[in-house]
């Protein structure tokens, strides 16, 4: 099993505590092992492949946002604590800029999350400008982008992860309209695999 970067920072202290506690307080040692195991599971990073042509989901979870923003459509995916938290590129393109914005840590599924800490990745695609947003949640305190300005993106490529609860959005290129959407709010999706929008060629 592959793991997202940073897993050692959280899992190793828990397993080390278990080793120290084992001869002193075995129940506490078991609790520490369980915590370390949960952290390792949370940081899992399974292989994914797109299930067809089109824009893939940037995250595992449930579609929580589908709305128009000017001449573009935004699709947001809320990641529960049980979901994989490694995020994927929804489409091919070239990164024009990566912007970090400090902010609050409201629940990622709420309207107030628009003011949360976030990293916005502006992408130039063959179909026009797009944007990927990694948004921190109530318990997420760190966003880890893997990409930088000038990088080429391949659809379903790993682009980052967020520690412990969050949301990932894709602002589709203007060429996409509501008729191209394949998901609605409440749908379950998988990062790099589920198709959220597709255009007829």
From TrEMBL:
Its cofactor is pyruvate. It is an enzyme of class 4 (lyase). It catalyses: archaetidylserine + H(+) = archaetidylethanolamine + CO2. It holds the Pfam family PS_Dcarbxylase. Binds 1 pyruvoyl group covalently per subunit. The record marks 165-166 as: Cleavage (non-hydrolytic). Its EC number is 4.1.1.-. Heterodimer of a large membrane-associated beta subunit and a small pyruvoyl-containing alpha subunit. NCBIfam families: anchor_synt_D, PRK05305.2-3, PRK05305.2-5. This is Putative archaetidylserine decarboxylase proenzyme. It comes from Halobellus rubicundus. The lineage of its organism: Archaea, Methanobacteriati, Methanobacteriota, Stenosarchaea group, Halobacteria. The gene is asd.
């Amino acid at each position: 099993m592959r793991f997202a970067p940073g897993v050692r920072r959280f899992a190793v202290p828990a397993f080390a505590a278990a080793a120290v506690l084992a001869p002193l307080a075995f129940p506490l040692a078991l609790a520490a092992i369980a915590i370390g195991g949960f952290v390792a599971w949370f940081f899992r990073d399974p292989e994914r492949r797109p299930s067809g042509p089109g824009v893939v989901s940037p995250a595992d979870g449930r579609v929580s946002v589908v709305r128009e923003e000017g001449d573009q459509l935004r699709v947001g995916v809320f990641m529960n604590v049980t979901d994989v938290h490694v995020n994927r590129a929804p489409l091919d393109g070239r990164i024009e800029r990566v912007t970090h914005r400090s902010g609050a840590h409201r629940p990622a599924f709420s309207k107030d999350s628009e003011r949360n800490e976030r990293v916005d990745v502006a992408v130039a695609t063959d179909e026009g400008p797009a944007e990927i947003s990694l948004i921190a949640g109530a318990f997420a305190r760190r966003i880890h982008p893997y990409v930088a300005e000038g990088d080429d993106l391949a659809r379903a490529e790993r682009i980052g992860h967020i520690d412990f609860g969050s949301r990932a959005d894709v602002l589709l290129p203007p060429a996409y309209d509501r008729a191209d959407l394949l998901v609605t709010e409440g749908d379950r999706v998988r990062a790099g695999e589920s198709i959220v929008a597709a255009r007829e060629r």
